[in-house]
Amino acid sequence: MTSGFAFALFTWGIDGFGLATSHGAFPWVKFIPGLLLCVLAGSLTGWLTIRFENHLLAILFWTALALFFSRLIIWLPLKAAPFIIRLLDHTMGEYLKYPLYGSLNQTAWFGFAAIVLVAVICGLLEINMVEQALYSLGSAAILLPLILCIFGFGLVGSTSDSLLNEHVREPVRTVDSLIQFALDNADEEVPAMVARSMHLGAVKTIEDYLPLERRIILSNFDESIGQVDVLVDFSGIWVKCTAIYNQVTYCRLALDLPGAHHINLERLLVTIPINN
Fold first, then answer.
1. What's the distance, Cα to Cα, between the start and end of the chain in Å?
2. Which three-class secondary structure state does DSSP give residue 219?
3. For residue 267, pLDDT beyond 60
4. What is the SS3 assignment for 260?
5. Is residue 235 helix, strand or coil?
């Protein structure tokens, strides 16, 4: 249970916090199911290990757990999260069709290579130390294997976050930072050099909508995750921003979104200034 909790916390919990503090839409949609799956899988693995008390079987069980965790790194954000979001917000969810490139499978295997080492060590620790800890009078014997598992799975969880989550989280944070910077300096003259470095011109065409409440989510990406499309929901007005290596290049109204025409029409008539 401890191993599964630590892995989920550092793989998707930190990601969820980063999105939640950047106006990310449904920031916990990966962490909550990831936490449940990892804790359940970890609990089953731990129970089987103690049930059979066989070192070879323990290695097999914990290797299988590592394989399961490594598959979740890709499956949860690219397949499960869009499906859950579609149930909660049909319009937004229908637009999240993340491609599953072949290179992402290699990413999962790289994650497996890192996780399996820690998993096998924890599995062997369980056999050799847990029973001893149960009959020990000191608390250190109980805490030591737990601390080691938290440290090990926290480390590989952080590594797993950097394999995919970080690459799709940073464009969302970049777009949010740009919008906030534009809002904070709306009534001030921004030096040209600062404006260029912040790519302030990218939001010029949508500056009328910036004060509205916003939700931001990744909508698409290329195979290298270098060019990313980010969708911004300004209280029903949909905007698509394109970022190349975390640099926002331009933002535009996204009236081609499913259902966006009837959602946006009334607000567009109110917010777009009309010149006499």
1. 66
2. strand
3. no
4. helix
5. coil
Token pair for 119: 């998993």
Let me know: does 208 contact 268? Beta carbons within 8 Å: no
d(CA 15, CA 106): 21
Distance between CA atoms of residues 22 and 9, nearest Å? 19
Q: Which two tokens stand for residue 58?
A: 């323990």
Reading across the β-sheet that carries 227-234, which strands appear in turn?
A: 214-221, 227-234, 237-244, 247-253
The count of residues in the chain is: 276
Q: Which two tokens stand for residue 145?
A: 């294997």
Q: Which stretches within the chain are classed as H helix? A: 2-8, 14-20, 31-52, 55-75, 81-88, 90-94, 102-125, 131-134, 140-163, 165-184, 192-198, 260-271
Tokens 């919008």 appear where? 179
Cβ contacts of 87 within 8 Å, gap of 6 or more: 93
Q: What is the DSSP letter of 24?
A: B
Question: What confidence tens digit (pLDDT) does each residue in 113-131 have?
Answer: 999 999 999 998 888 877 6
Residue among 3, 147, 129, 120 nearest 62 (CA): 120
User: CA 192 to CA 52: how far, in whole Å?
Assistant: 69
pLDDT at position 47 is: 93
- Give the global pTM: 0.86
Residue 256 pLDDT greater than 80, yes or no: no
Distance CA 10, CA 18 (A): 12
User: What string of H, E and C letters represents the secondary structure of 129-192?
Assistant: HHHHHHCCCCCHHHHHHHHHHHHHHHHHHHHHHHHCHHHHHHHHHHHHHHHHHHHHCCCCCCCH
Give the C-alpha separation, 63 to 73, whole Å: 16
Q: How far apart are CA 271 and CA 138, in angstroms?
A: 67
Question: For residues 63 and 45, what is the distance between their CA atoms, to the nearest angstrom?
Answer: 10
